[in-house]
Fold this sequence. Notes:
Blueprint: E1 7-10, E2 15-20, E3 23-29, E4 32-38, H1 41-59, E5 79-82, E6 85-91, E7 103-108, H2 115-138
Amino acid sequence: MLLTHLQLGRRGPDGSALVDGPLVVGWTRSGIIGFGGFDDYADAHAAATAAAAVLRQWSANRAADAPAEFPGQLSSDEAVFVDGRAVARVLKPKAVKTDVPGYGFEVAVPHAMWLAVMLELAQRIHATLVGSRRALETGGVGA
């Protein structure tokens, strides 16, 4: 199984790019981890829900409450709810600034989280999403 390792790249004064090989596949900013490159709304929504599950599993034995409540107002068509809380949002392709075209999502993490921890969580989310896509493409889990 080939493991991919995300690296941080420059994205501007308020965040970092998440780079997989030569491609920007996501981003971080204070309290947010995002990824792009999903075929449609349903795929991005499912990925956001999976990301929230990864965050919940990670935070189970820690003081951090992840995923966090998503900041700001969200419309009903962009909000992703987990346990009755809006924890993520789906982004339309024009709002996604990655090298991989398509829909995207952003999931909330505790606002004061260190960048190194956000990178670790982004890596976990990315590995889950890549593994899920590989399983779908080959027709089985663990491919």
